[in-house]
Task: structure prediction
Amino acid sequence: VAIGRASLLRLDASPGAALEGAALDGTWPLQGGARILEGARLAGLAIELGDSVTSPQIIGAPADKRLLYRRFGASIVDMETGALARSAAEGGVALACVRAVSDEVEDDFLAPLSYDPAAGPAARAARLLAAGRWIRRYRDWRSRAERARRALRDFMAWYLDCPEFPAAVSSRNGAA
Result:
């Protein structure tokens, strides 16, 4: 199981753990999602099943997040699930990915860091300075990142203690 943080794309969802069902733009199925989802919910964890889209750069602008949702219907965007899923599929390794949402659709903290191929270094620096309100932005993002950290901690505590999942049992026994 690969875990990490991601950006929310759906307006009707809330921060917390989101279990990804498949990557988009080339589809590599992830394994065990329904079993993990059911077990985690029975354990009282807030978790949803959804698709993800992987981007090679930061997607921080709310308009860009909404566009990705409309275009692909994915629940979240991150920077690594697609590569992990493809590598696992090519190697015949079962992989499930759990991502905790660190920024919501309308969160613009990372927007000034979003990739713009038309912007040179001076334009990117100007965009950072023009964004303003950095202390408020950072506090809001930090609060959401802390919720994501707790969601991942709770998920991992449950997963590693669950004998139903062989990887969790192998990890506890020190096996690779």
Observations:
- The first strand starts at residue 2 and ends at 8.
